[in-house]
């Protein structure tokens, strides 16, 4: 009997793949955002409106993590941008190697963009621990889900650089304490940003869009070669 | 239920670490799991058992070393004995913001490997 010391991080292979992706996107100057939320929080609708607003001036693409259907990628392709579905076959999160394979299959169509949106599997827990080589994680919380979510799922709300409260047009009809959510998010992510939007009415969309374009500009400025690479 | 994915990754790492050892079998894998790793040790063990059933690792046990996170209040100081998992970054006494250290471990520490005894193999008529 031999005891073999291994001392290896279980997620090391994921971390290595994520580092590779981050390097690729540093070269292309692509801003990569990883969107995480419960099912039905309005991720795809927000993306549709975002694409409608930005596709005239920026090249955009989407990677859609889903357990079994092609539906979300189809919705983005209908908006006129390249999108690929990653079917996880039951798994509750995307991992960096799946992203790597999907990008390779698309042959550069999704890796040479201004902004790549990665829509993770709808789930506030499992995607939190998996680095996908993104610039930052965004967590979405719709007003129909209840205001206790940040403290119930603190990991994602403290890791996300941006919290997007969605469906604020429904605020008059649901008991949702926006002030309480602002306080919880400020506690969990003191350096994080919070935006409140309604993709339906358009309220707050300007703040959301400029958050994205500012982040892209910042990334381009930090990587001097990136702007001229493409 | 990402415990199944984690179990599969643990097996991949374990197999890799014994790849150059010749014939034999893995009998135990020791893991460190932190408070904040979002892993339920019992679920992980079930996932492991389901995963290795009918494979060369069948019967190999998974041992989990639990690694708690330490939480310190900037006002009250150390908060010993907080229940695992209650890691909301707020002090239960003064509502101050806590600093949290450790607890993010998710590591394969050790693999126990049972070398195949050539004499015994001979006696069993070259089984396996
Ligand atoms: Zn305190």
- Using a beta-carbon cutoff below 8 angstroms, give the protein chain pair with the largest interface and the number of residues from each chain: A-B, 29 and 33 residues
Strand order of the largest sheet of chain B: 2-1-6
The main sheet of chain B comes to: 3 strands, mixed
The general outline of chain B is elongated
Distance between the termini of chain A: 56 Å
Overall residue-averaged pLDDT value of chain A: 92
Ligand catalogue? zinc ion
Radius of gyration of chain B: 20 Å
Helix vs. strand class of chain A: alpha/beta
Distance between the termini of chain B: 34 Å
The largest pleated sheet of chain A is described as: 7 strands, parallel
Determine the number of helices of chain B (DSSP H or I, runs of at least 4 residues): 3
Instruction: Quickly give the structural class of chain B.
Output: alpha+beta
Strand order of the largest sheet of chain A: 4-3-5-2-6-7-8
- pLDDT averaged residue by residue of chain B: 85
Could you name the key traits of this structure?
heterodimer, A: 230 residues, alpha/beta, seven-stranded parallel β-sheet, 9 helices, 8 strands, 21% strand, globular, B: 128 residues, alpha+beta, three-stranded mixed β-sheet, three-stranded antiparallel β-sheet, 6 strands, 27% helix, elongated, binds zinc ion
